[in-house]
Amino acid sequence: MNRIACFRPVAAKAMAAAAFALGLSGCILPRDLPDPALDIPTRYGAPHVVAPKDLPKLDWWRGFRSPELTALMEEAQAANLDIAAAAARIRQADAQARIAGAALLPVLSAGDQATRSRTSGSSSSGLTISGREVTNYSASLSASYEIDFWGKNRDAALAAEETATSTRFDRDVVTLTTLTSVANAYFQVLASQDRIRTANRNIAAARRILGAIRARLQAGTGTDLDVAQQESVLANQRAAVPPLRQTLAQNRNALATLVARPPESIRVKGGSLGALAVPRVSPGLPSELLTQRPDIRRQEAALAAATANIGNARAQFFPSIKLTGQGGYQSAALVALFSPQAAFFSLAAGLTQPIFDGGALRGNFENVKARQDELLQTYRQTVVTAFADVDNALVALRQTTERLRLQHQVVVASRRAFDLSEQRLRAGTTDIVTVLNTQSTLFQAEDALLQARLARFLAIVGLYQALGGGWEPKAERPVDAL
Q: What gap in Å lies between CA 420 and CA 22, rounded to an integer?
């Protein structure tokens, strides 16, 4: 039975209630299922453009148009150890669900037995009598069944099924985290390579300026102080390279870990962030987020499991009715074992009613009720956090895009100032202070531009993560025949 048909919200929060019930399966009584009382906004606070064609695709990483990134993503999905461990937890949860569901079915067992016994040969009168040997054969079939009149076993099975569903969404959370980590590490590799190339160009420029200053010193128009200042600039540029190489190596090793390979066996060619495409991402509507974020769906399933556990704890206050039966054949002669005269059977019905347990049942019921309330608040917090994550990601994407645009203007102006100062230095019409200032400004502006470009790509990945990764494509509505 579909739980959507069972769920009837008591408050006028149709959108929240519908999204809350959409991910639930089975049937929980309306009086048990808590109202999430969510306030779903109609739109996100951060400015954005809603375009259905730009909703996150299942293979969202292909939007960057990097074959190497795509290969790493596919390898991570197949080989990542965290994902493999999450898949193993699903198998465990499925096995527990089968164990819990077994109580809904009768237990059958068959037995065959052969016994041989000998009686004592002594008697009370002191006479010695030969003992008697007796052989018995039996074959029987036993069955037992607990009538689930109060739904105790049904609720326990439902709780186990919802827990298994929760572990599936947990695997989705782990997968999304892994894929975003791969993307972020790969972009860090590209950014480090870009920054190293830029640092090497700046080192070459600083050497060129140092050569011009030394020429002026030889001509008598420069000083040792001018040379020392430029040597300091050159040394600073050289010192900036080792940390960048360290960052590059660390992120390559991080990629190796994410695809479950030793660092020595992975080769990441990399390239440049400037060669990547910039995908357009639309966040859709806030109400859609409740069915797209795997962490929200995970909390929904956990809350449903806790609600089913309440039904199980409540049913434990009522009597337990158990039926048992046994039938078979028993004979002292094997050839006569299955004759009609050797048949036997027994039937029994038992009822057990808890009377006094020191408050254990009451404590268990209050415990599962409190657990349900905890998971309800956790679910609400997860939803609120999800909305904030999307808003923050939209703001980050908008502001990093604007920062990149402005920083590009800074680099253009700084490059022009540096070129002019170098020309005038060689012509002997400018002072060394101006050259030092313009080259330092240019070096910092170029590095800041690369960091801004990296921040923009990380913001795009952050938006994909905030939206729950790729979305299932929506089925188009059929056109009614005229």
A: 65
Residue 481 Cα distances to 44, 393, 477, 478, angstroms: 37, 43, 12, 9
Is 401 within the bounds of a domain? yes
Residue (of 91, 83, 84, 77) closest to 163 by Cα position: 91
In a domain? residue 334 = no
Domains held by the chain: number: 1
pLDDT per position as a tens digit, 311-327: 999 999 999 999 999 98
CATH code at position 46: 1.20.1600.10
pLDDT at 365 over 90: yes
**CA–centroid distance for 99 within its chain:** 26
- If you write DSSP's letter for every residue of 119-139 in order, what string do you get? ---B-TTS-B----EEEEEEE
Cα-to-chain-centroid distance, residue 215: 62
> Token pair 């400015």 is at which residue?
47
The fraction of the chain above a pLDDT of 70, given in percent, is 87
Q: How far apart are CA 193 and CA 361, in angstroms?
A: 64
Write the pLDDT tens digit of every residue in 367-419: 999 999 999 999 999 999 999 999 999 999 999 999 999 999 999 999 999 99
